[in-house]
């Protein structure tokens, strides 16, 4: 599915959200990019509210460190008992920590940014339309594989060995919609930068800085896992890469107060080498046969 279809599926499949919304053609009133006219065939019942209208723009914003913006308009009428404030939390829960994977392999997560109230006074209609515009930053969790030896692949495999029950993005197969839980958190490792530290006759030594994101709705689980991963790495002192070479841990940081969606909680600076020359196999240049 494309991102638009995944968002629609996420909203309409929520039983908590659907029971508060009006119905259009047998489905909860969730629309993109705009809602049908109030007099259009398909509306069921006496009212066309509450309803949800969402739009998104996948345009990277470096200042906000996001891949785009998702805007969800929640429209209600002031003549009903259902208020936007009551439904807003359900919409935010629908997108909290959830990971959507599109057909092209892109994986997106959503961080709530702000909520703004609005009113629409439509003359001729019963009641005034009141609502909330809920904005989310769209975060893209792209695959981070580079080239061999790959520090991201090594850290993914290392953490998977510590927590087999976790889903590691880039290591495990992800479904279209993934919801992290306290029993099965989701781990995402991101390569921030790579610098050449020094070089010798045979090896170019590189310093790679890696951020580790622990996605889980339970804050105490995120803190406990971050502490445990840092302790394990500190005791081991190195992470073995796919070519069996060691990546030495040059620096290790953990920030329990950081934004786990945008920044990550663990920062690893690994020191690993790139061989200038590959091992040459022995070549047979001359043979001699002796008969006895």
Condensed summary:
This protein is α+β, with helices and mostly antiparallel strands. The protein has helices spanning 3-12, 15-18, 84-95, 151-162, 219-236; strands at 23-24, 27-28, 30-31, 43-44, 51-57, 68-77, 99-101, 107-120, 129-140, 167-168, 177-178, 186-199, 203-215, 238-240, 246-254, 266-275.
* Strand neighbour order, sheet with most strands: 3-5-6-9-8-7-11
Helix share of residues?
Answer: 10-25%
Q: Proportion of β residues?
A: 35-45%
Form type: elongated
What is the string of helix and strand elements? HHEEEEEEHEEEHEEEEHEEE
Number of contiguous helices:
5
The residue-averaged pLDDT reads 89
* Span of the ends, CA to CA: 75 Å
What structural category arises from helix and sheet content? alpha+beta
Q: Report the uncertain regions.
A: none
Q: What Rg is obtained from the alpha carbons, in whole angstroms?
A: 26 Å
How would you sum up the major sheet? Answer: 7 strands, mixed
Give the strand tally: 16
Give the topology, please.
Elements: H1 3-12, H2 15-18, E1 23-24, E2 27-28, E3 30-31, E4 43-44, E5 51-57, E6 68-77, H3 84-95, E7 99-101, E8 107-120, E9 129-140, H4 151-162, E10 167-168, E11 177-178, E12 186-199, E13 203-215, H5 219-236, E14 238-240, E15 246-254, E16 266-275
Parallel strand pairs: 3-5, 10-12
Antiparallel strand pairs: 1-2, 1-4, 5-6, 6-9, 7-8, 7-11, 8-9, 12-13, 13-16, 14-15, 15-16
Keywords:
single chain, seven-stranded mixed beta sheet, six-stranded mixed beta sheet, elongated
Describe the structure.
By secondary structure, the protein is an alpha+beta fold. It has five helices and 16 strands. A seven-stranded mixed beta sheet has the order 3-5-6-9-8-7-11, with helices on one face. A six-stranded mixed beta sheet has the order 10-12-13-16-15-14. The protein has a three-stranded antiparallel beta sheet with strand order 2-1-4, with no helix packed on it. A hairpin with an 8-residue loop joins strand 8 (107-120) and strand 9 (129-140). The N and C termini lie far apart (75 Å). The model has no long low-confidence stretch (mean pLDDT 89).
């Amino acid at each position: 599915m494309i991102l638009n279809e995944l968002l629609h599926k996420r909203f309409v499949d929520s039983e908590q959200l659907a029971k508060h919304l009006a119905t259009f053609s047998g489905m909860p009133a969730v629309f993109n990019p705009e809602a049908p006219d109030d007099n259009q065939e398909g509306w069921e019942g006496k009212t066309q509210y509450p309803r949800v209208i969402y739009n998104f723009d996948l345009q990277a914003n470096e200042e906000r460190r996001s891949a785009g913006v998702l805007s969800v308009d929640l429209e209600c009428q002031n003549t009903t008992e259902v208020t936007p404030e009551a439904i807003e939390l359900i919409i935010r829960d629908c997108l909290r920590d959830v990971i959507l994977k599109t057909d092209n392999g892109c994986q997106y997560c959503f961080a709530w940014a702000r909520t703004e109230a609005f009113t629409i006074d439509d003359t001729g209609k019963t009641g005034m339309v009141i609502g909330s515009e809920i904005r989310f930053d769209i975060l893209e969790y792209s695959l981070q594989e580079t080239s061999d030896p790959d520090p991201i692949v090594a850290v993914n495999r290392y953490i998977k060995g510590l927590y087999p029950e976790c889903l590691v993005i880039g290591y495990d197969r992800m479904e279209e919609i993934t919801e992290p839980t306290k029993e099965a958190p989701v781990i995402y490792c991101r390569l921030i930068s790579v610098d050449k530290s020094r070089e010798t006759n045979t090896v170019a030594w590189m310093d790679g800085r890696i951020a580790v994101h622990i996605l889980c709705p339970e804050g105490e689980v995120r803190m406990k896992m971050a502490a445990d991963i840092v302790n394990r790495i500190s005791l081991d002192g190195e992470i073995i890469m796919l070519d069996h070479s060691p990546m030495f841990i040059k620096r290790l940081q953990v920030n329990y107060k950081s934004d786990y969606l945008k920044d990550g909680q663990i920062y690893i600076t690994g020191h690993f080498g790139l061989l200038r020359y590959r091992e040459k196999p022995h070549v047979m240049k001359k043979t001699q046969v002796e008969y006895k």
